[in-house]
């Protein structure tokens, strides 16, 4: 079974969505992330990290608010933002690292 660290340390571009099931803005991000994945296919891996179930990665990366999006490659944080954002803004950010 892949761990969080296995995924973010791969050479692939990975967008981690730190979320909570009770969070309204997190729910609003779900269709945005689905559309982003549909647009980019295998060029981007998106993982969802429930902060209530997986507190260690959230603590490690000092996630204080949900949703928090963090873009990784080879274990390095390339970009991060807390709060929901529209598809066009998120896609513009991700495109800078493809």
CATH homology group = Glutaredoxin
Give the fraction of residues assigned to helices.
25-40%
Q: CATH class, anyone?
A: Alpha Beta
Rg computed from alpha carbons, rounded to a whole number of angstroms: 12 Å
What do the pLDDT scores average to? Answer: 97
In terms of structural class, how would the helical and strand content be classed? alpha+beta
Number of helices: 4
Order of helices and strands: HEHEHEEH
Provide the spatial order of strands within the biggest beta sheet: 2-1-3-4
Report the principal-axis shape.
Answer: globular
Beta percentage is 25-35%
Largest sheet: 4 strands, mixed
Low-confidence stretches: none
The number of domains is: 1
Please give the oligomerization state of what you see: single chain
Q: Would you give the CATH topology? A: Glutaredoxin
Tally of strands? 4
* End-to-end gap: 26 Å
Q: What CATH architecture label applies?
A: 3-Layer(aba) Sandwich
Could you explain how this protein is built, in words?
With 98 residues, this protein is of the alpha+beta class. The protein has a single domain, classed as Glutaredoxin (3-Layer(aba) Sandwich). Helix content is 38%, strand content 26%. It has a 4-stranded mixed beta sheet. Helix 2 links the parallel strand 1 and strand 2 (45-50). The longest helix is centred in the first third of the chain and has 17 residues, at 24-40. It starts with a helix and ends with a helix. The model has no long low-confidence stretch (mean pLDDT 97).
